Amino acid sequence: MSKLVTIYGGSGFVGRYIARRMAKEGWRVRIACRRPNEALFVKSYGAVGQVEPVLCNIRDDASVRSVMAGADAVVNCVGTFDRGGKNNFTAVQAEGAGRIARIAAEQGVANLVHISALGADKNAGSLYAQSKGEGEAAILAAFPHAMILRPSVIFGNEDGFFNRFGGMAGMGPVLPLVGGNTKFQPVYVDDVAQAAVKGIKGEAQGVFELGGPDAEAFKTIIAKMLVVIRRRRLVLNLPFWAAKIPATLLDFASACTLGLIKNKILTRDQVESLKTDSTVTPGAKTLADLGITATDYASVIPEYLWRYRPSGQYAAIKESAKNLKKA
Fold first, then answer.
1. Distance from C-alpha of 309 to C-alpha of 191, rounded to nearest angstrom
2. Is residue 310 part of a domain?
3. 302 in a domain, yes or no?
4. Based on the structure, what is the number of domains in the chain?
5. Checking DSSP bridges between strand 183-184 and strand 216-217, what pairing results, if any?
């Protein structure tokens, strides 16, 4: 009988790529998520019945345990940007991660992969990074031979990075940034998935920091993106103190409405996070140690950012027509 992997958060951005790869490896894949009715698309990744979404709440022991039953390997892809509410940083990224590892150890699961983030540190200035660090500590305390992946900002067709700023670029002549001089090392989502597969199959364990081939300033990355989407914009680098003003107001509005109005624009914690570079630490184990060649973001983003060009899907046709006129 084929092996089974349970992927918590498997219908999310990173999880779906891991699920697709594991289905191709011939494994049965169980996608644990809060809304399985919205994750039915994962069924198409394999043969009939090979990939199944199931209901799970990682804040509940019984729920986590039930979807892990019979699993040979477990992956935790669950994360959040919500500071408040039931699914906050601590509940999801610290306690939730620890719960998955503890129950995996109790059930004798062979391999565990945890998706963390670069900058994860219990003593970081950002609450997000603190909770990620606490989650890592909880994972290793319960499951010492786990694989922990710390990616920089992840890019790919469904990403929340290039798609976000590509959309913003179409709203006006000025594109504001916070932490324009902060460095990022964008890593391709399928490279992260390949790394996770190594851990699932028991071919690697330990902490790996994942970044692409280029570590560049935030404003440089956005400038290259603007070339791809054929837009000329004034990139305005806001100082951190100035960015905290609207972030505080947006956080206050969310708090006053008890979360009915969610702050998905800019939070105070995000401003704090942007003060720290998201790049691979010298000497850390990386994609290269897993035999994976890092993918350059510049070679991939034109495949999905065309939608943000002034002419959208017709941009290439119009450019080709101009060349014909010149000829």
1. 27
2. no
3. no
4. 1
5. antiparallel
In a domain, 113, yes or no: yes
Q: Which domain range does residue 195 map to?
A: 4-158+185-214+278-295
Question: Taking the model in full, what pTM does it have?
Answer: 0.94
**Residue among 258, 252, 264, 273 nearest 82 (CA):** 264
* Pair 34, 55: CB distance under 8 Å: yes
Task: Summarize pLDDT for 231-286 with one digit per residue, the tens.
Answer: 999 999 999 999 999 999 999 998 898 778 888 899 999 999 999 999 999 999 99
Give the model's confidence band at 85: pLDDT under 50 very low, under 70 low, under 90 confident, else very high: confident
CA end-to-end span of the chain: 63
Q: Which long-range contacts (CB under 8 A, 24 or more apart) does 57-63 make?
A: 58/8, 58/32, 58/92, 58/96, 58/99, 58/100, 59/86, 59/87, 59/91, 59/92, 59/95, 59/96, 59/99, 61/99, 61/103
* CA-to-CA dists, residue 138 to 63, 102, 143, 151, 251, angstroms: 19, 8, 8, 19, 29
Q: What is the CATH number of the domain that holds 13?
A: 3.40.50.720
- Is 200 part of a structural domain of the chain? yes
Give 94's pLDDT tier (boundaries 50, 70, 90). very high
What 8-state DSSP symbol labels residue 278? B
pLDDT tens column, 34-65:
999 999 999 999 999 999 999 999 999 999 99
The residues facing 115 across adjacent strands are: 149
